[in-house]
């Protein structure tokens, strides 16, 4: 059974209450339906020179966790009728990097769908996402915790209040502190988490958002401030562009790619860049609002067959936090039918199950007139073992809903094959094949 955005009607979100006489308990209530809006931001600079490299490069590390609640796939997962066990296994990873806050160094999750920068503090209270009751700090599985330095300046009347799509909740204070990232130090507004209901990975201490707009959620209304990327380019420390390249064979804790601020990482790039306007997709109706970088595509190809109808009015979120590509249902069916033997959709798992030794079809995504072909390795994803201990795999291409209803994504399956440039200043994205 495939799904549509219109069926995203039921989601439980949390509101916290606390008394000194009893454990902290989170009461859950219903949330309204999801809605989306896609719009084109205005350019404020000319496109950055295509081949400009930057010394401000961050190494990305792969982390394993329950599943990335900040990713586009978490939104799609809300509509599946099955258990999606295999999807959860395949999507159980994210990307992290190192930053310094004050004089303390941390690993944080990289998130292109939000703009907050936050870390957990050393005396935080951990709440179980399942039960809603206070538990030991170790249950939240954060990495190193932040102890506010004397230089941390609290902003009175501003509070961090974040709720993610899978029930994770964060609350705390807002303040300013010196933050160093890729060799650049700025005074930055950050969130410091006092209460957390969190599925951690044992490594990261927080999250750094790279979304285009800037908001944090006060208990009463959004309060605007610049994310760290905008702070840097508004102070003319970098050009208003960042780029990302993802490694193919990274294991947990190893180098998984690069994030370059102000230009390109010093890597080999095949061919020329193709450009397309940046769009922003606002996803509303969950406790947490999402803002994803989005593009139009020209179409997809499978073998000798082209599907221009994969583009048209369908927009695609570009999300490094999502492992698979999500296409309109009929396109996903066509791609998966071309595996030898064919991949078959499993209603219970919400994915196309494929023989781990299958032959993947020649498959490409066309953007800005150029076709970017996906390595066959990225088309077959390991998803654990079955009850007999045999390897289980799923396709890197999944169904995102019907045209006009679904949420479509270019995730890791696509991004491991390109250098992706987010030129926020010129309001365009550029892609080139990675070497």
Automatic annotation (TrEMBL):
Signal peptide segment: 1-21
One annotated GO biological process: proteolysis
Active site per the UniProt annotation: 111, 319
Keyword annotations from UniProtKB, A to Z: Aspartyl protease, Hydrolase, Protease, Signal
Gene3D superfamilies: Acid Proteases
Keyword Hydrolase carried by entry: yes
Location of the Peptidase A1 domain: 95-432
CDD domains: pepsin_like
Annotated protein name in UniProt: Peptidase A1 domain-containing protein
Originating organism: Aspergillus felis
Lineage per the UniProt record: Eukaryota, Fungi, Dikarya, Ascomycota, Pezizomycotina
């Amino acid at each position: 059974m495939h799904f549509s955005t219109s069926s995203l009607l039921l989601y439980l979100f949390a509101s916290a209450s606390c008394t000194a006489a009893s454990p902290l308990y989170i009461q859950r209530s219903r949330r309204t339906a999801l809605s989306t809006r896609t719009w084109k931001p205005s350019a404020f600079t000319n496109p950055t020179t295509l081949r400009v490299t930057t010394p401000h490069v961050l190494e990305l590390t792969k982390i394993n966790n329950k599943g990335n609640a900040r990713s586009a796939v978490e939104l799609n997962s809300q509509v599946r009728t099955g258990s999606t066990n295999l999807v959860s296994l395949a999507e159980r990873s994210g990307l992290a990097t190192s930053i310094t806050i004050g004089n303390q160094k941390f690993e944080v999750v990289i998130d292109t769908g939000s703009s907050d920068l936050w870390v957990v503090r050393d005396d935080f209270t951990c709440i179980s996402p399942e039960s809603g009751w206070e538990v030991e700090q170790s249950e939240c599985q954060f990495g190193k915790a932040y102890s506010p330095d004397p230089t941390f300046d609290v902003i009175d009347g501003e509070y961090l209040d974040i709720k993610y799509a899978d029930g994770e909740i964060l609350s705390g204070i807002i303040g300013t502190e010196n933050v160093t990232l890729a060799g650049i130090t700025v005074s930055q507004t950050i969130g410091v988490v006092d209460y957390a209901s969190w599925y951690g990975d044992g490594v990261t201490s927080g999250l750094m958002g790279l979304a285009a707009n800037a908001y944090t959620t006060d208990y009463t209304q959004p309060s605007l401030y610049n994310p760290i990327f905008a702070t840097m380019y508004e102070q003319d420390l970098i050009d208003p562009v960042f780029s990302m390249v993802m490694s193919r064979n990274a294991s947990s804790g190893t180098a998984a790619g690069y994030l370059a601020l102000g230009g390109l990482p010093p890597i080999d790039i095949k061919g020329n860049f193709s450009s397309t306007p940046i769009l922003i997709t606002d996803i509303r109706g969950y406790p947490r609002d999402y803002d994803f970088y989005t593009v139009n595509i020209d179409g997809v190809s499978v073998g000798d067959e082209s599907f221009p109808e994969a583009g048209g009015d369908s927009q695609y979120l570009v999300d490094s936090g999502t492992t698979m590509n999500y296409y309109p249902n009929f396109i996903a069916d066509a791609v998966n039918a071309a595996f030898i033997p064919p991949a078959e959709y499993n209603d219970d798992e919400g994915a196309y199950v494929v023989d781990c030794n299958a032959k993947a079809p020649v498959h490409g995504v066309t953007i800005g007139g150029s076709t970017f072909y996906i390595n066959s390795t990225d088309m077959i994803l390991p998803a654990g073992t079955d009850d007999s201990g045999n390897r289980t795999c799923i396709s890197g291409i999944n169904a995102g809903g019907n045209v006009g209803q679904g949420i479509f994504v270019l995730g890791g399956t696509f991004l491991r094959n390109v250098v992706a440039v987010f030129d926020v200043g010129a309001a365009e994205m550029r892609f080139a094949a990675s070497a």
